């Protein structure tokens, strides 16, 4: 049972990344439009102000309709095959639910009367794509996305006999879903108010527990990274009412991320909402891990420092610039797990300090994203210098604490390995030598995508062992049939900085280049 639950969570975490990957792009575009719409930057009366408003109006519907975005993205992410059809069925299913739920509320006399949609705030009902329905926020899309995917995986290849053949395969999926969706439309009308109370209670606990809640949030965001389940920690706070609610210009926004962006485009707001406390978890990406890298270099054996430098500089730069931490975190995660616990605790502590001192900055990613979001907002509204000041202290603290612990407990961090262990990432050459020794296969030619993909597929146990392939910001996420035949050394030989096994779910860490790796693997498997 435990394995099934963990496997299910892994699958959902992998799927939720599909829509989440696009949302930072939306945010960056809105940040850019806020620059164009700021008279202090472009000049009073500039035509660019209207250009900025026009661009923002085209992007905002994505963030105000996240339910359908998550529904389609999750269904596509969980679908094992025919992903395009799964996405279309998810769209049809979402609309079907809206119509059915609205009609049920009418038939039972539960529709709340209003003259302005804002009057529905707090009533348990809302308007979605013109339909007045039970207010489930993004959770509606998440739930329907999972339901659609499960039915799709079961029936997408089922043929019907004779004249009914036309309605088989993916058409059958939607046919099966219609009665399920209508039942859910009725059931959620009665059940969801209780679920909503539980969600509000959880959010209230995090908010009312003050520093303890922030610490738990920050700690789990880091601690769960090896499992890939950290997406399940921050996503509800960023995109649902668990992360707060705020009305800006007559429109109510749910979730810390949406609230921040709404305020960003409204220059009349003088100080951003406290919900920004859920956006502070990127401090360690910009500052803390740089301090950790310096500690690794400081404590390394003299003869290994030059080699270690070549490994740490790009890994630390990746974390600092774009907020992808796995390349450096995986250099110590498995060799010194005690440091990982300390790392997670320090991150939570510094998030608490940042919040207590009044930072309202958006600090989710690397320094590029940080500057893009916070500079246009201004110092007075986000108090971003507080975030930077605390971050510099965090850098020094990480350096001091990691240096002390590494020396005190003689931890085998990078550069401190036994003399016979070389400090490096495995290369394609290593993999070639291993393959030649074990199976006599032809050497893999470096620099070619097809050869890289072939090496990855081979290390994953071959084509027949691979069920699905996805990716997130930094990891290739694969569902395999038999995890026992996956060759971790072979995967590291393709340039991966880490391999994580969770049952049949395999995560291979490639960092920022993961999109290119995913494309190469997809093309190879399709060939």
UniProtKB/TrEMBL annotation:
This is PTS glucose transporter subunit IIBC. PROSITE patterns: PTS_EIIB_TYPE_1, PTS_EIIC_TYPE_1. Its main location: membrane. GO terms for cellular component: plasma membrane. Signal peptide: none annotated. It comes from Paenibacillus durus (Paenibacillus azotofixans). It is found in: Cell membrane. GO terms for molecular function: kinase activity; protein-N(PI)-phosphohistidine-sugar phosphotransferase activity; protein-phosphocysteine-sugar phosphotransferase activity. GO terms for biological process: phosphoenolpyruvate-dependent sugar phosphotransferase system. PANTHER family: CYTOCHROME C-TYPE SYNTHESIS PROTEIN AND PTS TRANSMEMBRANE COMPONENT, PTS SYSTEM, IIBC COMPONENT. InterPro entries: Glu_permease_IIB, PTrfase_EIIB_Cys, PTS_EIIC, PTS_EIIC_1, PTS_Glucose_EIICBA, PTS_IIB_1. It holds the Pfam family PTS_EIIB. Residues 450-527 form the PTS EIIB type-1 domain. The keyword Phosphoprotein does not apply. It is a multi-pass membrane protein. SUPFAM superfamilies: Glucose permease domain IIB. The chain crosses the membrane at residues 12-37, 57-79, 86-107, 127-151, 172-192, 278-296, 308-324, 386-406. Residues 3-418 form the PTS EIIC type-1 domain. The active site is at 472 (phosphocysteine intermediate). Keywords: Cell membrane, Kinase, Membrane, Phosphotransferase system, Sugar transport, Transferase, Transmembrane, Transmembrane helix, Transport.
